[in-house]
Amino acid sequence: MGSRRRTIVALAVATLSSLVALTGTVAAQSKNRELIDGLEYQLLYVALPLTLFVLVILVYAAVKFYDNDDPEPTTEDPALEITWTAATAIILLFVGLSGYSVLVSPYVSPSQALDSDNRSQEGFESFADLPETGDEEVYVTGYQWEWQATYPGANVTTEDEIVIPADENVTLWLTSDDVIHSLFVSDLGIKQDAFPGRYTRARTIVSEPGRYDAVCAEFCGTGHSRMDADVVVVEPETYDRWLETNEGNVTAAPEPG
Fold first, then answer.
1. Which member of 12, 74, 114, 210 has the lowest number of beta carbons within 10 Å of its beta carbon?
2. How much is the pTM?
3. Is-contact 241 247, C-beta < 8 A?
4. By C-alpha distance, which of 167, 204, 165 is closest to 187?
């Protein structure tokens, strides 16, 4: 009886945990986060009933065959084997298509890195030579152990603060001055590596002004743990006024309010 009771308790805990996860969602703050969260919940909606189905079978087997002193081997059932093989293939196809639809989004995979071997023939020798994207652009450089952001339209520079306007498409061009770094903004669903001598692109559109924590997600030396920054999202009018006021200067970010 103790074994059956533990199995039933485990089933109840798994069910409650899944329900809490489903009802505990919050609105995504960026398009990137929305896409990633959407994929996670699509997969959860498939995984949850499958998990419950397997647990129900486990409980049934534990109860029905408890203390069976004369077990018998199962008989072959080709129809059942074909059914679960086909069902597994359909589930894997669904997972693959769902993942692919998110991975091809320009907010999740905006571009491949432009490696140093191709820079000379393409002319990408600095941030200024990168192709136009049509987005609001910010140039971000990682170095041991800080982040520096430059806003090319007004030649404004910030240290450990990356300022972007809300409700606008923004491209962050990243590179590194020394070793590999990785800009990771969990709340916005942004993660992109920064390589020495190469340029990578992260793209986002953020709906809610505020300060969002950014960290380096690639071990980059003894100061790695303190290589953090803020992504400061402000209203477009505030952003434009801040750039105009601080043109040509190294300055601090405006407050989101």
1. 74
2. 0.76
3. no
4. 204
CA-angle at 34, arms to 28 and 37, nearest 5°: 95
Token digits for 42?
A: 């699509």
Report whether 137 contacts 171 (CB < 8 A).
yes
170-176 and 200-204 beta bridge pairing: antiparallel
CB-based contact 248:154 (threshold 8 Å): yes
- Count other Cβ atoms within 10 Å, centred on residue 164: 28
pLDDT digits (tens, 9 = 90+) for 105-151: 889 888 755 555 555 445 567 787 888 888 999 999 999 999 999 99
Rounded distance between C-alpha atoms, residue 181 and residue 184, angstroms: 10
**Residue 76 burial class via C-beta count within 10 angstroms: exposed 0-12, middle 13-18, buried 19 and up:** exposed
Give the C-alpha separation, 150 to 162, whole Å: 9
Annotate 175-191 with DSSP letters as a single string.
EESSS-EEEEEGGGTEE
What are the respective helix, strand and coil percentages of the chain, to the nearest 5? 40, 25, 35
Which residues in 146-244 belong to E strands, given as ranges? 146-151, 156-159, 161-165, 170-176, 181-185, 190-194, 200-204, 210-216, 228-234
| 182, 216 Cβ separation under 8 angstroms | yes
